[in-house]
Structure formats: structure tokens, C-alpha cells
Amino acid sequence: MSENAIGIFDSGLGGLTAVKELVSLLPQENIIYFGDTARVPYGTRSRQTIIKYARQDAYFLLSRGVKMIIAACGTVSSVAVGLKDELPVPFTGVVVPTAAAAVQATRTGRIGVIGTSATVNSGSYKNEILSRNKDITVIQQDCPLFVSLVENSFISPDDDIVRLVVERYLQRLKNEGIDTLILGCTHFPIIAPAIQQYLGDAVTLIDSGRETALYAANLLREKHLLNTAVQPGTCRYYVSDTVEDFRRVAEIFLNRTVGNEVSHINLEHAHI
Ligand code: DGL
Question: Which domain holds residue 68?
């Protein structure tokens, strides 16, 4: 069982921020990634649709024999909360690990949360933070355009469009004097340099991909599911839209080229 892969999914490419961290934390692990690139974004869809897509994604990974599933998507983690209880393998989303890290990091008790509209409307991060410390002030802001910027490679802090959108969305959080900001969507770490530049170095950014990878590594250790092989593991990627587009954008997320490890799969008619 411990040699089976870790399954990770996202609505698109954002979850690759968790893959990158997991590969550097646990290089011997095999990873199977599913990016639902034909149906991204999830963050503007209804609750029922997000739950249906999330279940199709998770059951696809289960059909590949994974030993654990990570929903590396803020939207799925916030909305499809019942998934954890129906899966036969250990599961984590991004909300619990990321909120826990933010509570640890804040000094002033003023935490900002940014995510998709579905994530922010669910109040998932806010509730998780308040369940850990009810005296913390949480200020939320949805930033749906960040997903499109990242998927279209608009990521440089020197790009006028990026600067403008960052300022438009984050001005209120800056004025509110937050000292910690949760990047509650796994796409957002890619524009972290632009966000940090705008908010200044005094604000700590909490990367949901990174925190979730750390949490998943601990969970595997606790369950005695770590792969003890000595050779490096493999990564396989599945996407529901074109393989070429995935290769192009995946390079930005992973900092390396992706070749034949990526295949196309259609889950549209999966009966789950
Ligand atoms: N990575 C997803 C999330 O964390 C992307 C957003 C979307 O599909 O709208 O929410």
C-alpha cells in the first residue's frame, strides 16, 4: 500500500503548488495529479455542481489505486465538505492546514483571507480560524480574476495589469491593517510576489499549497503510509482539456518542463 501513489486534484493547475511542495518534502512518493482543466473555474459555480465535480475527481483518483487524496483546491475544500467522510482512504483539503498555520503566524490577530467567490461565501477559512481562536478578526475578500490571471500567465509583479488587479482587490485588506494573509486558493501562490510587493514585507503570506503538503506528509507518517523506497517517485498528470495547454502553464507552477507524463481523460460522463 505505501508504494501506491498520493492522489491530488484541483479544478485546474492551482493544485500544482501543492505537488511542487510535496515533491520537495517527500521525493520518494509517487504522485497522480488530476486537473479538471475543461471545467475550471469551479469557484463561480453552484454548490451542487462543485460537489458533483469534486466527487468525480476523487473517484477517478481512487480508480487509480491511490493511498491518499488531497483536494488541492480551496473551492472544493470549502464546499464539498462531506467528501472526507465518504472516501475509503485518508483525505485532506486545504482549509484546515492553512487556517492552522495562519493562527500560528499572526501577532496582531488580524488575518486576511482571499479566495474564490465560492470559498469566501462559504466562510470556511473564517470559521476554521475562529474555532481555533475566537478573538481573531478575519477580513475576507474574493479575488476571482486572480485565477484567470494565473491560468493566462499574467503573474509578474512588474506587469501593469497584475498590479492594477492586486491593488483593486487588496486595498481594503491593506487599510484594515492585517498582519497575515491566507492565499486561500491554490492558484494564488503563483502571484505571491505581486501580492507581497503591494502589501509590504510586514504581512506574512500563508501559502495553501505549501501548508497542505506539510499537513499531508504528517498524515501519511501517522498512518504509516510513507513510501520507504529509496529511488525518487514518479509524477503522472491527467487533465480534462488539452495536454498542450497544461504543459505550457504547468512549467510556471513546477519550474520544470512536463513531457509524456501527462494524459487526457474525460470525466464528464462518469456515473458517480
Ligand atoms: N485552485 C482553485 C481554488 O483553490 C481554483 C479556483 C477555481 O477553480 O475557481 O479554489
Answer: 6-93+210-264
